[in-house]
Each structure stands twice: as structure tokens, then as C-alpha cells.
Batch of 2 targets.
Target 1
Amino acid sequence: MKKKLLLTFLTVAFSIVLLVGCTTKQESTGGNEEKVVNVYTSRHYDADKELYKLFTEETGIKVNVVEGKDDELIERLDREGEDTEADVLIVADAGRLHRAKSQDLLQSVESEVLNKNVPENLRDKDNSWYGLTKRGRVIVYSKDRVNPSELSTYEDLTNPKWKGKILVRSSSNTYNQSLLASFIEINGEDKAKEWAKGLVDNMAREPEGNDRDQAKAVVAGEGDIAIMNTYYLGKLLNSSDPEEVKVGEQVSVFFPNQDTTGTHINISGAGVTKDANNKENAVKFIEFLSQEKAQSVFAEANYEYPVNPNVEPSELLKSWGEFKTQDISLNKLGENNKRAVEIFNEISWK
Ligand code: FE2
């Protein structure tokens, strides 16, 4: 009798263990009950949230979002290691995505959809990350004091005629590192270094502030020309602060190197994390964002260009005109980053 009771007890206990085991497994693999994708993103736009909702409606996959600053999200992913909840990382700049890949935080995926929607030069050569939006790093000039016919190339900004007139942020910023990395690729190290040195000689002030602050300094008369990313002009023109709108209205965009090597472009993009618990859902999520229906919404939320060649940019971006871009793979921005940082230090670009 005692034996039978013990046996019953053991059977029940064993069943509970089995049940618990199954439940845990189902959750971690995103089984039918609760399909999820956990996203770490540096983006914080309402339009993104609408898209996530649409994704959930279409696929039944719930999107959990953790927002943060680009570098902080990469650090967090690194710190959490294989315990991370994150399935997808979305950050700005190919140099940063390359860094996340180099730190072994991303995994390569196979996706015909992504290969079709994202041009080859805008994705990682090992499929660890994919560009989702595109921006140019351009010349923004004072409408009052600069005639665009005086402008031509990035190289020309080192001409003594621009002495004390150029505004650009610090070299510790990834955007400038990627810009110089592209010059290393296209013109070689020596010429890239010469350019950086020449630009420092023409600076209106020691680098300070972010991209938007350079446009503000142009309007304040500290200099005539700023180097900045295209979407910041969109942000200024659409700002809730009337002072910022005024700044946006007093400057204009010039796309450099149209007759030579093309304007420097960069991306914001996404990758599946190395330890993703929901890899399949993560791939579906990135695929969704690369598709025509999502691309214009996703890009427009931050005044960027879609990467999908079948999707047109917004009216504002179209009004700036089409432009020729550098003909290099953005993989090179990450690969040349270390040398770019060294050059900045050698020539003392603060
Ligand atoms: Fe930015």
C-alpha cells in the first residue's frame, strides 16, 4: 500500500516536472501561445510603434521594445551576454553595427527577402546586419553668405578660401569617423589624412556640440558652412521650437562630390543578436521593415532615405534633389574605423 502511494506520488511529481519543462521550453522558443520578438533600438518614433503594431497584426508576433542610446544598447548587449532577452539590435551607423559584429554580438542570417530589399553595399558581407534607412553627410551652408556655385567637393573645404568658416562636430563622433573611413577607402590614407588636417586648419572654432548645433552656429554667424547629416535639417525644419525652424530655413543642403566620387552616405540598420531566443521572429521582423509597405514610414519618421530602391523618399527629401553617392561597401566604414580614429588623433581634430 505504501509502495503504491509512493509510486502515485512519484508519477504525479514527474508529470509536473515534465509539464513545467514543456512550458519553459515553449516560452523560450516562442511557441504558439506567445510569439514575441524583443527589440533593442535607438529609435524612439511614434511611427515605428505603429509599424510594430501592424507587424503584430500580420504575424501574431508581439514586439517588445527597449529604447536606449546606440552605444549604451551595444554595451548592454555585451554585458548581458547569452542571458540577453534581445533578439534584434537597431542602431545608427554602419561603423557601430560593424563594432557590434566584431564584439560577437550579432549572428548571420539567411534571408532572400533581405537580400532582395537591401542593396548589397548597404548590408554586412556576412549577413550580420542590414541597412534599413539611409542618410547623407553633406554640406549645409548659409543662404545669405554662400553662393552654392562656390561649393563643389569635400576636398575643396580644405581650400584656404574657407579659412575660419567651417563648422563640424568632434572626431569622437562615429559619423565623422565613418566619413574619414570612407575617404581612406576611396582616396587612400595619405590623402585622407591631408584632408582631415586641412579641415582642422579651416575650422571656425574648436569642435563642439552635435550636428544641429553646427547649423545653429552657421545661422549665428560663427561660420558659413557646416558638415552634417541630412536628417538633422529635416528635424530642424519640422521642430516644435520656432527658433530651430528659423535655423532650418536659413540654410540649404549641398551634396558634395557630384562630379567626382559621390556624397558620403551611411545607414541605420538592424541585426539579429547572437543569442536570440526568437531568431525566426527576429528575421521576420527585420524583413517586414525592409519591405515596401514599411520602408517609407520607417525612413520618413527620421527624415531619412529608404534603402529599398523601390520606395521613394519623402517630398522634403525629394525637394533637395537626387544625388550620386560614394560607390563603396559600407562594410569599409567599420573596417577602416580604427585607422580613421588614429588619423584624427595624429592631426588633432578634437
Ligand atoms: Fe544622429
Target 2
Amino acid sequence: MIGRLNHVAIAVPDLAKAAAKYRDLLGAEVGEPQAVPGHGVTVVFVTLANTKIELLTPLGDSSPIAGFLEKNPGGGIHHMCFEVPDILSAAQTLTEAGARVLGDGRPKTGAHGLPVLFLHPKDFDGTLIELEETRPLPPSA
Ligand code: CO
């Protein structure tokens, strides 16, 4: 069902500082901050050859990652995102098998403008998993 690792998301207390570290110290390709009000976060994407890192910081008062940063004030890995070809069919298969889809169970539009949903960390060994529907990429040259 799952395909490529689309990104690993890291919650950070200081987005500019974290972005500068990836750009200047690690020499990675780092994008501009993007507000994603629907998910209560501001994100910076770090593009790597085989996946992305998503640096997240809270946006607004009811950000879903505010509590995570309270427990992990220095930041930490927040979730992993796997690509799926058909998110509704993935949600149905998982729900039938007893896994919990967070929220109202329906996909939302994620930071890349594609449908995403999140699976309960208690059903996946303590890891919050995001699924993103993507069209398969052509094989790299
Ligand atoms: Co994500």
C-alpha cells in the first residue's frame, strides 16, 4: 500500500534557526517558510535527493503541535509521511483493520496541496503517520 517516504517532519521551536542550520551547516536546499493555517503550522521544506524534511512550528493558538513542543521544548521528530496511490482506499482498508484515522476520518489538503490524513500513533508503535495521495513519479534518470 505505502510507497515512498515523502517526508519526515520535525517540530522546532525556532523555524528560522532550524532552517538556517539545514541550509548553512548541512548544506541542504531549504525553501521559504509557508503558512498552512488549515493545519495550524508554518513549514519550511528541506529537499533532499531521496526525500524531504519538513520543519514545523506552531501557527495560531490552537496549533496541533503546540502540545508536542511543550513536551519536547527543544523540538523533535513529529511524524513520517508515506505516499499512497489512493488515499480513500487506504483509509478504508486501515479502518476496516481497526487502525484509527485522526480527526473526522476524511482526508484534508496538506502542505503540498494534496490530500493527506493522519493515523493514530498508538496504532503504529508510537509514531504519528501521515499518508499523502500522490501520483507515482516517473523513474529517475
Ligand atoms: Co507532514
